[in-house]
Each structure stands twice: as structure tokens, then as C-alpha cells.
Amino acid sequence: MKLYNIKENDEQVSFGQAVRQGLGRNQGLFFPSELPTFSDVDALLEEDFVSRSSKILSALIGDELSEEQVLELVGNAFQFPAPIKSVKEGVYALELFHGPTLAFKDFGGRFMAQSLAAVTDGGKITILTATSGDTGAAVAHAFYGMEDINVVILYPKGKISRLQEQLFCTLGKNIHTVSINSDFDACQSLVKQAFDDQALREEIGLNSANSINISRLMAQICYYFEAAAQMSKAERENLVISVPSGNFGNLTAGLLAKALGLPVKRFIATTNVNDTVPRYLETGKWEPKPTIATTSNAMDVSQPNNWPRIEELCRIKGWGLDTLGKGVVTDEQSAESVKELNDLGYLCEPHGAIAYRSLNEQLQDGETGLFLCTAHPAKFKEVVDDILGTDIEVPAPLAKHAVMENLSEELNADFEALKAVLRKAQK
Ligand SMILES: *Cc1c(COP(=O)(O)O)cnc(C)c1O
Description:
Elements: E1 2-5, E2 12-14, H1 15-21, E3 30-32, H2 41-46, H3 49-61, H4 67-77, E4 84-88, E5 91-95, H5 105-119, E6 125-130, H6 134-143, E7 149-156, H7 162-169, E8 175-180, H8 184-196, H9 198-204, E9 206-208, H10 214-229, H11 233-237, E10 239-244, H12 249-259, E11 266-271, H13 276-283, H14 307-317, E12 325-328, H15 331-343, H16 350-362, E13 368-373, H17 381-388, H18 396-402, E14 409-411, H19 415-425
Parallel strand pairs: 5-13, 6-7, 6-9, 7-8, 8-14, 10-11, 10-13, 11-12
Antiparallel strand pairs: 1-2, 1-3, 4-5
Helix pairs in contact: 1-5, 3-4, 3-10, 4-5, 5-6, 5-10, 6-7, 7-18, 10-12, 12-14, 15-16
């Protein structure tokens, strides 16, 4: 697999390099030079999740890893299902929260950990990542206890739910967590600064586990195929998919699935009021505003770092950006949709409900709708209980971590202070 840097096209890397490096020069994102296409998608959809996924990923990775190796990585990473549930006539929820940290980021995080271990050149590795909640947990659990890999996770203090925080800040060992006195964008910009510091980068073998890392996106392609595989051929021919978006990794993966041959009629890019992308699609102007805290806080991102990949893919495929649907959902509206879904007999948290809302508004006759449920309702228990007046059950993995000691350090959004933490993590 060859990939190039979107910003500096002459920088070309292998899959292994892209996974180890995360970002290219000048903070450029890597993008595949060639995308395979599957001519017989129907046959592919007949296969089970793990073998189909390893075929897709093997076709992307090429001969850098053998098919057997890829099958083993996928088998280790995807040890939980991605079922679709019928919510009402013609509308399905894709449940991506059956992994160990109950959010879709388990797919990407676990495949990345497996890939990195497979392509390591034996040097030091420090994973530095910023999280608005779910990435941190997924990455921490995916890398926990791995030898020679240190993980440093930054998150905005007080801006993620307590249950979420407990899930990844209580592990210890090779997992170091830092609460930053600022918002998610500040965390993300600290990560970028660290990547810009070439000397530091080499000294500690810096690597990002953000959705910046191509391996995470590659893993996420697979569950779009898995959703289609659970539908009838007639249903999936007119498929419209609504993706609750923050950093836009999930939507990038969906569009990549389409580029590989998955028939998807339309995608809807849905955000909360942090609506940089929907406004851009409307006006053609990229005008990020300060990030606003919402009840769907994993989507509180105003400078989504995967967007350039979507533009690149659309440019290559000749897909006009105007073919992309868009939706913006406020907290009040998402609460309404959580209630509406509950009345339909489906318990959903705000991120999934946001995707449902714009899908429901925009779905036309004869189309099949799919909205992505990116987190287990219990991960957003406070919000869901508040909306529904319930006391929903907390699954065992969350309950266990809720009572453990929080091991995080607290830091201002200051790069020098972060450097000290990164160096200390080496010891
Ligand atoms: C990360 C996350 C999102 C946003 O996904 P992106 O790939 O960053 O667009 C949505 N919902 C939940 C629950 C998340 O954790």
C-alpha cells in the first residue's frame, strides 16, 4: 500500500510507515495512492464479518502483510459484532458499541494497536492522542499492557462525562492520562505542536492514535459493509446513511467504503451546533467558530481534522460536495429525538439520536435509512436519564471502572509542560 501526504504530495509512505508516523510533513494527512474496487460486492457481502473485513483490508494493505497476517489482526481486533436493529419501517440503527469500551472507536483503536504491533521496527513508541471522550477509552484499552508502547492521552478537563473519564483514567501501567484546562480543540492543537517538533518526535517515537491514523479509518470501512450485509439486496440498493460527526473520521470511512464499491446512495453529514462542515457545504466558506459544549460532547469539534481527506476523496472520485447531505441538530432537538426513539422502543443516546433526526427529516420514499449509533446509551447515562427520567443500567465494564482511582494529571494548555509529561512517560 502506498500513501501520499495530502499537503506535500511528494512525501510517499508505505502502510507500515503511515501507521507508525500518523501524520506526514507539515501536519499533512496520508491518503491511499490507489483504492482497490470490489466488482462483486454481493459475493463479498455473503461472507462473515471477520473474513470479509480481512479481504477488504488485505486488498487495501497489499503485499506488505500476508493475507494470513491480516486475518489474524482482524480476528484479534474485531471480537464483537456490529448488528443493525430495525427502529421503524425502512429505518435501521447500526450499533457500533458492543466492544470493550462501548463505543465505535473500539474498532479503529483495536485494529490500530494490532497493526502497529505488526509493523513496528523495534524502536520506542509513544502514542499521543487527544480525546473528547471515546477515543481515549478505546485507545487506552486497545494498547493497555503492550510492551514498549507508551500511551499519553489528553482530554479537556470537565468536558467529558465522569463515567467516560473513569473508563480510561484508571488503568495505569503504560497508559498516562492528562486533563487539560481548556477545550478539545486546544488538546488537538497541543498534539499537532508535538508532531511539529521534529526533535521530540524522534526522541520519543511519537505516534498519534487519533482518527488521523489511517489504520483506524481503514478498520471503520468494514462495518459499513457489515451493515449492508445484514440487509436485503433491495434495501441496500437505496441506502442513505446518516453519520453523527465530530472529527469526520467516521464519515471518511463511509465514503471510502463507497469508493471500494459499497452501494450507498447518499451520506448525510450530521453535526451538533458545532457545524463548521454543514455551514461550509452551504456557503463554501470554511469558518470555524469557538467550540460550544453540547450533550453530544464527542462531537464538540469545530476544526475537524479529517475533512481534507473527504475533499481529496471527492476530488479523486469526481463526487461533487453538493452530493453530500448535511444536518445540524441542537441539544433540544436531540433530546426530542431520544424521546421519539424511546417511544419507538429503541433506547439511544444523543449522538445516535442526532444522526437519526436528520435521517428521518431527509429520507425519501423508497429509500432505506441507516443511522450510526456510535456509543452505548449508558456511556451518556447522565444525559439520557435526564431526558427520559429513567435510571438506565450501567454495563459491567463501566461500573467496574466507576469506582477505581482516577490517575490523571492536570495541566494547562502549555506545550512545554506537555513535553515534560511526555519525557516522564518514558521512564
Ligand atoms: C468520536 C465520536 C463521534 C464522532 O466521530 P468522528 O469520526 O470524529 O466524526 C460520534 N459519536 C461518538 C459517540 C464518538 O465517540
